Amino acid sequence: MDNQRLFLFLALAAVLFLIYESWMQDYGRPAQLPVAQEQIQGAPGIPVPSANEIPTVSTTPGAVPDGASLSAALDETPIRVETDVLRLEISPRGATIASAWLLDYAVVPERPDDKFQLLKPVPPNMFVVQSGLLGEKPDLLPTHEAIFTSAQSQYELQPGADRLEVALEWTNDAGVRVKKIYTFTRGSYLIESRQVVENQTDAPLIARAYNQLQRTELYDPNETRFISTFTGGVYYSPEEKYKKVSLEDIAKGKLDRTVTDGWIAMMQHYFLAAWVPPRAVAETFYTNALNNSRYIIGKYSQPVSISPGTAHVFENQLFVGPKLLSTLEDIAPGLELAVDYGWLTVIAKPIYWLLSWIYAVVGNWGWSIIVLTILIKLAFYKLSETSYRSMAHMRQITPRLQALKDRYGDDKQRLNQAMMELYKTEKINPLGGCLPILVQIPVFIALYWVLLESVEMRQAPFVLWLDNLSAPDPYFILPLIMGVSMFVQQKLNPAPPDPLQAKIMMSLPFVFTVFFAFFPSGLVLYWTVNNLLSIAQQWKITRDLEVETAKRRR
User: Can you provide one Gene Ontology molecular function annotated for this UniProt record (predicted)?
Assistant: First the structure.
């Protein structure tokens, strides 16, 4: 019975270690060196439809331009688009969204005018959004290698306007005309994408549309291994729900799945780009790797026959922006799961909403975490009171427990019987002190994922040196305070009778300080404040119990 606290602290340490191991398996990726441009070769990027679906496509749909065409694409003048939240560059080659800056997000807090670039056309960190059409003959419909034209070279959302439309056009001598139209909305990262195919030939035109996301490994010299997160593809289907496809998985095998009411995305820490097809429309999801240096997740539609003199519109929605939970929920079913809180989502989501509500009142995420900690402590106050009272009783009878151990020596059976009789006489539950830790573990893990995954916490300042609650404390001051608070809390608890166990318990504050030194400072702030509140509560209960005991002895 005297081992329960040791077991619990070791269990919590094991939980922290398992979090780290699971985190590194799912998300942790060693920093990759920049991929040299000359190493990237052309290769198929989209499955060629089988002969029984539509006529064989002799060109290679979805192929990545080789060195020469890639250089030519970079030399072509991009069409620049700017809204209140996005700045984009659309390449004439394929009408590809090759660059995207998020105007509300800086790379680092010290340079607020240096905006975060999510999409980039060249390595390192190449990440582009592509779309195209498949047809019967090589030149009948444009892939994402075809050259489009635009009436303007620059578009800007004007003051007072809520929408901005950007159109690019492609035609051929056969009589096929294709328009790619992107529609932007004020305050939104969601882009409406349309591919309008006009058949002005004298024969039916069979076509299907494809949309894909292509990227290289993520290389961030400022990100340490301890705060690496998932970078790769994800897709959603009503049957399988949310599925991750890591870059390693893309390199190992190709995805080939027909899905209705799903979506595909390529994401990294805090941000993602996603293609969302129309509802109730079946599309085939696929992945492909190009020489293990570029990774693709995409989708293509069912074939459509377009009669002469008519047109067909392939519609999609494209999201390019931050992983804001409230925004993603309104776009498509399951898209909010891109904010990945892990297996404790059922606890993490309420914590996130409560934290957001507090932030709306206090206006600072650090103070919001402190208020949240107080509310959680109040919610479990009575449970903690019972537990701390039990621990205070245990502290009072520690000398008697030691006397029993000295009396019975190595006779474990008689020692346990005597201890149980003592617990029964004193009306003590020896496991009562375990409950606060057991209750905190799932809340701690859920809050860990909330702080790690919520883009609202990115670069969120608190006070003094704590200018980024999503990153570890740069000076390790807060983890040290946490370690000291844990040491003080242990001094309020009864010491284990066994000297070896006592030494192990005294080493745990140091072990936990090392663990927490690499955790987001927002999480360390929560744990530190929780420890301080626990110390105050436990000190008061211990003092009250001592007063009660003294009165009974008079």
Answer: membrane insertase activity
Is 463 contained in some domain?
yes
Where does the pLDDT of residue 336 fall: very low under 50, low under 70, confident under 90, or very high at 90 and above? very high
- Name the domain boundary from 283, 304, 339: 339
Structure tokens at 528: 């530190």
Residues 290 and 373 placed together within one structural domain of the fold? no
The span from the CA of 317 to the CA of 234, in Å, is 16
- What three-state secondary structure class fits 303? coil
For residue 464, name the pLDDT band (cuts at 50, 70, 90): confident
- Total of domains in the chain: 2
Checking DSSP bridges between strand 154-156 and strand 79-82, what pairing results, if any? parallel
Measured CA to CA, the distance from residue 178 to residue 170 in angstroms comes to 5
DSSP class of residue 147 equals: B
243 in Cβ contact with 250 (< 8 Å): no
Cα angle 123, 127, 131 (rounded to 5 degrees) comes to 130
- DSSP 8-state assignment for residue 38: G
Whole domain around residue 202: which residue ranges?
67-339
Residue 347 lies in a domain: no
Q: Indicate the pTM of the whole model.
A: 0.78
Q: Which amino acid is at 460?
A: A
- In whole angstroms, give the CA distance from residue 71 to residue 65: 9
The more confident residue out of 444 and 293 is: 293
Q: Is 15 exposed, middle or buried (0-12, 13-18, 19+ CB in 10 A)?
A: middle
The residue type at 123: P
CA separation for the pair 67, 60 (Å, rounded)? 16
CA 220/CA 212 separation, integer angstroms: 24
Nearest to 267 by CA among 290, 238, 247: 247
CA distance 340 to 243: 11
Task: Indicate whether 7 belongs to any domain.
Answer: no
Looking at 288, 304, 339, the residue that finishes a domain is 339
Query: At which residue do the structure tokens 């006489």 appear?
Result: 425
Residue 124: is the preceding peptide bond cis (ω within 30°)? yes
CA distance 205 to 304: 8
